[in-house]
């Protein structure tokens, strides 16, 4: 009779060992999945920051361009006189566009992201 109890004990111990190993495996997979999510989130944030950096550099270049142009004209003694009246935009000229209709799609509000 003692061999039957030993056999049940070994069987029970094997079942417990299998369950413990599977629970440890599930815990490791869960940890690994959370690390992958964190890495994916960091990559996404990095992509967003790189895109914002590129947009801001482009915007800085565009905003700095008129100042550099005026500076270079002043340095080289460029003609800064007003154009003749016929070349200026009058109310009937196609160049007289109201400011409300002008939109600059390349200067999006980056802080909204």
Portion in strands: under 5%
Portion in helices: 55-70%
Distance between the termini: 74 Å
Please work out how many helical segments DSSP would assign. 1
**C-alpha geometry:** rod-shaped
Largest sheet: none
The low-pLDDT segments are 101-105
Q: Mean pLDDT score, rounded?
A: 77
State Rg: 36 Å
| Helix/strand structural class | mainly alpha
Could you state the order of secondary-structure elements as H and E?
Answer: H
Task: Tell how many strands the DSSP assignment holds.
Answer: 0
Give an overview in words.
By secondary structure, the chain is mainly alpha-helical. Helices cover 65% and strands 0% of the residues. The chain has one helix and no strands. The protein has one helix spanning 2-75. The longest helix has 74 residues, at 2-75. The model is unreliable at 101-105 (pLDDT under 50).
Give a quick set of tags describing it.
1 helix, mainly alpha, 113 residues, single chain
Structure summarized in a few sentences:
By secondary structure, the protein is mainly alpha-helical. The chain has one helix spanning 2-75.
Q: How do the strands and helices of this protein lay out in sequence?
A:
Blueprint: H1 2-75
